[in-house]
Design brief:
Strand order of the largest sheet: 1-3-2
Structural class: mainly alpha
Strand content: 5-15%
Order of helices and strands: EEEHHHH
Radius of gyration: 40 Å
Number of strands: 3
Shape: rod-shaped
Length: about 190
């Protein structure tokens, strides 16, 4: 059974030959004997390929296949079926249409999954932010209680918690430090 290697070359491999297709077989250099039914290499030099759509009706099978390979992505499936009504082309068109649909479905699925992950991340971030704000608020309330206790120890009028509204934790901690210093100087 012969195995084929087909090489599509974007440019031109042999500038002295305007031929698109070259076929090579395994041959012994000395005797010229060819190993039949083993391996063939085919090169398709796309740099020489210039077929236009209007020439498809009179083009060779190879030229039609090359045109399909190079230009199918520019056409919708119905147009491809009209230009290439033969069963192998229709099968190839159906296959790429299915692959495109699967790819499109996968992209939609991936987009949906990403949106779900983004939403979960945003929810998690919001919870963390709320926890941090809650901790901050708890620290502020604790600092206010400490200030009120120190004011009581010093015999000062005890401020209402509402008095401290709008002050940051750092400001409350500075006031606490000041009151502690007064308590320590009293002792």
């Amino acid at each position: 059974m012969t195995h084929y290697a087909i090489c599509l070359l974007e440019g031109v491999l042999w500038p002295d030959s305007a031929k698109v297709h070259h076929a090579f077989r395994l041959e012994d250099r000395d005797s010229g004997r060819i190993l039949e039914g083993t391996l063939e290499f085919h090169t398709l030099e796309l740099g020489w390929y210039k077929l236009r759509e209007e020439e498809l009706g009179t083009a060779s099978e190879l030229d039609r296949r090359l045109f399909w390979l190079l230009h199918a992505h520019h056409y919708d499936p119905d147009t491809l079926d009209r230009l290439f009504p033969q069963p192998p082309f229709r099968q190839a068109t159906d296959t790429i249409t299915r692959i495109a649909k699967i790819t499109e479905d996968k992209a939609m699925y991936d987009t949906r999954e990403k949106a779900i992950r983004d939403q979960q991340w945003a929810l998690h971030a919001a919870r963390e932010e709320a926890r941090a704000a809650g901790r901050e608020q708890g620290l502020e309330q604790g600092e206010i209680k400490l200030i009120q206790t120190l004011q009581d120890i010093l015999g000062l009028p005890v401020s209402d918690a509402a008095t401290f509204q709008g002050q940051s934790l750092l400001q409350l901690q500075a006031l606490t430090a000041e009151l502690r210093n007064k308590v320590q100087r009293r002792s």
